[in-house]
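Input record, target 12 of the design panel.
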């Protein structure tokens, strides 16, 4: 997307817990916003024993992937594959690499960038070349570990949400490279962060940052999600960790009721009071900083 501002994701090497918490994961205050950071430290092991696990997941044509074909043979088939591991009870339990793939877990060390009690899930993923996941946000911080294959990741700041044509947690703009600007004209205003993950790279994706992934090769990866808000902030019945925080859900439900009440007024009155409501929301809830200031906090070492 040539008409969007393109920004590089900062790259860090030899990152330990202290460096991560000091330089990559600054505490969010009323005037600061966290930014994505790619860490080029290698992950111990390459999950080479992938055939030893017993996956519980949702996928397209997984039986074909279990026929004993090599990755190269799978890739020449006119099919696409995607597997996302699930918990033992898919309605109640988050995915955990240590439970669903215990042998694989021995080859993967979860970075100790957060407290053990903050851990939420570790999601095992397999995808074929060309597979692209739509632009969306998650409500928890996460690390994306690229184990094998190469993957492109495009990110957008939460402050660009107004330009992403959201429906729930997803963007309606499916093609982010050759976007129909007559249909989505505001999309050009969103600043685009982009990086290529190589095997062994980790990408830190802060909560609420929009991200879109494209598998450039047959690849294996692991997402590690953790809670950074108080436990009671999250929906206890959410095994995927992608439901809005409880307070946010209540606020959105209240908004829908309010908009329904506005519909009792003539159109010109609806428009006027809706604009007044937007101003109140901006004055009371928006962080008081400019997008330029938040981008100025990004740097590469």
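The sequence produced for target 12 reads:
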């Amino acid at each position: 997307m040539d008409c969007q501002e393109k920004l590089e994701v900062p790259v860090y090497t030899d990152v330990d817990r202290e460096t991560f918490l000091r330089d990559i994961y600054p505490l969010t205050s009323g005037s600061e916003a966290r930014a994505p950071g790619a860490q080029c430290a290698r992950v111990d092991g390459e999950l080479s024993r992938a055939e030893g696990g017993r996956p519980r997941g949702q996928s397209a044509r997984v039986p074909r992937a279990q026929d004993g074909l090599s990755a190269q043979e799978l890739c020449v088939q006119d099919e696409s594959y995607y597997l996302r591991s699930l918990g033992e009870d898919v309605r109640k339990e988050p995915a955990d690499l240590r439970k669903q793939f215990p042998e694989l877990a021995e080859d993967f060390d979860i970075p100790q960038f957060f407290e053990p009690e903050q851990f939420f899930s570790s999601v095992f993923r397999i995808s074929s070349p060309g597979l692209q996941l739509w632009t969306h946000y998650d409500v928890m911080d996460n690390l994306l570990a690229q184990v094998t294959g190469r993957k492109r990741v495009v990110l957008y700041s939460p402050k660009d949400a107004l330009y992403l044509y959201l429906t729930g947690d997803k963007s309606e703009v499916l093609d982010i490279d050759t976007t129909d600007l007559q249909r989505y004209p505001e999309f050009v205003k969103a600043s685009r962060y982009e990086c290529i993950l190589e095997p062994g790279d980790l990408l830190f994706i802060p909560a609420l940052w929009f991200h879109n992934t494209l598998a450039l090769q047959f690849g294996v990866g692991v997402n590690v999600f953790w809670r950074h808000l108080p436990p009671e902030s999250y929906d206890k019945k959410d095994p995927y960790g992608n439901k809005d925080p409880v307070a946010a859900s209540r606020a959105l439900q209240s908004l829908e009721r309010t908009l329904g009440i506005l519909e009792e007024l003539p159109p010109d009155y609806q428009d006027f009071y809706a604009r007044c409501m937007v101003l109140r929301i901006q004055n009371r809830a928006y962080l008081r900083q400019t997008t330029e200031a938040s981008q100025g906090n990004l740097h590469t070492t």
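The helical segments are 17-24, 62-65, 71-75, 97-100, 102-105, 246-262, 267-285, 291-296.
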